[in-house]
Design goal:
With 261 residues, the protein is an alpha+beta fold. Helix content is 27%, strand content 30%. Strands 1-2-3-7-6-5-4 form a seven-stranded mixed sheet, with helices on both faces. The structure holds biotin. Biotin is lined by residues 33-35, 57, 60-63, 66, 68, 78, 80, 121, 131-133, 149-151.
């Protein structure tokens, strides 16, 4: 059935734009969450690299059990990639950071200057434009699969954000006044992801971490978090080999949410 005209994404548009990636695509006009759809597909055996794309989510999920806000009809970039990397579970953080690098570089290439707030919030002028949610299944010491979900605010005006996000969120439209073809942006992100996945599989995590460090805006900032029932506070100074945030106190925050002090 032909898609309504306002869609820059459809099964066909995504398949065509991602021809170089050449992996199965499932497109939904609306779904609960692309991560949910991808988790289900991965359990059924979806091959490495399969992607799930939607125009709108009714139960979009963010990190730490938060809701991920999106609007229908061109407003939001929402997709998940199913990966089956040959890595130890303790290196799963590198997959998330790697996707952060890919998203950041793809938007820089499309003239949206951005930085990453650890672990992988896409930030533009201090506001959050996008985020990444990775969810994995593990058997023993191997990773069965990881679903990496990407959400970016595209055509959302300041007043369309809910009250609780108005002061902290932004969109590509607000920042650049330009409109983007979402299928083309997904393809651009996957092009950036390809060499990162090669590095991951070949054990060249230092390449991923070096790229990440160049894009991350969190170093030098005082951050705090609750972990292991303990409040940890210090200046972010480095990333460890598994993507954890190293503080000047010697503490390492393995993965999770931080507050900027
Ligand atoms: C964050 O909290 O920063 C992560 C947000 C991740 C949102 C994306 S949108 C596509 C995918 N499906 C979801 O339900 N969540 C992720």
């Amino acid at each position: 059935m032909p898609q309504p005209q306002f869609y820059d994404i459809s099964q066909e548009a995504v398949e065509m734009a991602t021809w170089r990636w050449a992996k199965p695509v499932r497109f939904f006009e609306v779904c609960d969450s692309t991560n949910n759809r991808a988790l289900e597909w991965a359990r059924e055996g979806a091959p490495h690299g399969s992607i799930v794309v939607t125009d709108h989510q009714t139960e979009g999920r963010g990190r730490a059990g938060r809701e991920w806000f999106s609007l229908p009809h061109l407003a939001s970039l929402l997709f998940s990639v199913i990966l089956r990397p040959n890595i130890h579970p303790e290196d799963l953080g590198l997959v998330s950071l790697g996707m952060g690098v890919a998203v950041s570089l793809a938007f820089t290439e499309r003239k949206t200057n951005n930085r990453l707030r650890w672990p992988n919030d896409l930030m533009v002028r201090g506001r959050k434009m996008g985020g990444i949610l990775s969810e994995s299944e593990i058997s023993g010491d191997r990773v069965d699969f990881v679903v990496v979900g990407v959400g970016v605010n595209m055509r959302i005006s300041r007043d369309q954000f809910p009250r609780e996000l108005k002061a902290t969120a932004t969109s590509a439209q607000v920042e650049t006044g330009r409109s983007y073809d979402r299928a083309e942006v997904i393809a651009g992100i996957l092009i950036q992801l390809e060499p990162i996945l090669k590095d991951l599989d070949a054990g060249r995590s230092h390449n991923i971490l070096n790229s990440y460090i160049k894009l991350c805006e969190t170093f030098g900032k005082t951050v705090s978090t609750d972990f292991g029932g303990r409040k940890v506070k210090g200046q972010a100074v480095d990333i460890d080999d598994h993507g954890g945030l190293v503080l000047d106190t010697g503490d390492v925050i393995p993965m999770g949410d931080i507050h900027l002090e």
